[in-house]
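seq:
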Amino acid sequence: MADAVNIKKLEAELWESSDLLRQGSKLTSNQYCMPVLGLIFLRYAYGRYKAAEKEILKDRPMRGGRVLPVEASDFRAKSALYLPREAQYDYLVKLPEHIASANLENHRGEPMGSLGEVVDNAMELIENQENQLRGVLPKNYTDFSDELLAELLRIFNNEALDDVGGDVIGRIYEYFLNKFAKNVAQDDGVFFTPKSLVKMIVNVLEPKSGILLDPACGSGGMFVQTGDFVNHAGMQANNAMTFYGQEKVEYNAQLCLMNMAVHGLTGQIKSGDEANTFYHDAHNLNGKCDYVMANPPFNVDKVKEESARAAGRLPFGMPAVNKNKEISNANYLWISYFYSYLNEHGRAGFVMASSATDSSRKDKTIREALIQTGHVDVMISVANNFFYTKSLPCTLWFFDKGKSEALQDKVLFIDGRNYYTVVDRTLNEWSDWQLKNLNAIVWLYRGENDKYRELLAEYHTALESDDDFASIREALEKDIEAKRAEAKKAVEAAKKREQKSIRAKFDEEIDALEETLTIAKEAIWLTEKFGEGVYADIPGLCKIADRKTILEEKGASLTPGAYVGVAPEEDDGVDFTERMKEIHQELLELQKESNELMNTISKNMEEMGL
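struct:
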């Protein structure tokens, strides 16, 4: 798979191209975003369709000497959307320039004279076979000229998408959701939850079967990631799980249904005023959910106290109400709802503003009651810049009403603010290996040491070695150094016209080695702290605290940093005084070189008569 930098570049190029077309079409973002997302939806769906088709045909039985035809149910079993031929992306991009000359008819047998009609027909064909998509997909492509629509289809058929693979097409789909969210969504795009946060929530909750509710479902990331988790465990998500969602903004609910459908998932999503979670339990699920996952809007104000009280789901009472009979900060409404929706063994995981972990007054009273239940399970602090549209830090909360008796009095605190991968200057994330490492801390806290050992085996498999991780890292570092020297020599010895391709070949090999080195470093990060699988409180990273400590010594704070402390600074062996002398000498030499260069430039300009 292409590296993160190349993927970011591809995202930006696709957005820039399509946004230029938006400007040329004189359409507003509101008019333009859903049709464009619809085309990316088709391209993403087609990528998953082709991958699933390949798997389906691999072991397809034969009858009468002929391979049995594929059916929609085959694709659903592979978590992909079945696409009729006229709704497949390659069919659309290969259509002739003059549609009228092709004598095409839509699914109703009516002639089609424009590309817009053909794309509308593709959307209708998909809706006709997927009940949950009826009335959801955009069907206003006749608003575009054939030339503009053909250009959009061409842009999203970028060959680089095939090179980087289906997962990245999904990431680009999500990238576009966010870019449009900035222009359209009232909450500046907060409906989108970064994938690494969603994965962390799903990994800690470990959904297996039952009812999953997201009462602030946005574009459906929790459902999609849960589907992937359950399918990866060898089950079929649609058979094992029942998905329910509430989303006040209808536009977001459409995106959710599209996102679920392209991943082969079905669910019940309600939108509009009846789906305003502050005032409605739209699916009547209070006390019935096996899992609750959400990224609700933070710090919402002006929630009507009377309507919220009438809607119930407040096991710890109402948060503070102001003189206008409004709740001025709804964070603890959400927290109460997530707890209340759980059945007797249910688990919840959600994103929340960091300020909620130690907010005061009525919030603190609710938090104390919540801690007393023994159902607060894990708290994880997240660094800045995990969101596309906001830079604020947040905290992941986890409840478990089915905690073992040994853990009833315990809460695991993890401070992840110093552990992440930098994507660019405005965006951080947890890599897949970092997610596994954080998850491993939770396993050890729960006494699930076998999962930890399986992860160590997974590291050895990925590194293709049974040596200790430090030795593997040392060998890789030597390999990279040797490969760079080999590359330098090969490029210098090559003819000028061949140097670029030779350099690219070596860069690819070095990138692969560095990627493996990163895996080795993550394995070392984990095993230096927990060895072969023994939990330990690690200063600056994790700490298990009991309820008495939380309530009496820490004032009911659930802020991980209040427990884990600060990691001791490592002595890097550098003599500070000597290093400062070296830096000073380097600066003097650089200044001398700069002065000489300026003199040379001045002389050259004089000779040129300037």
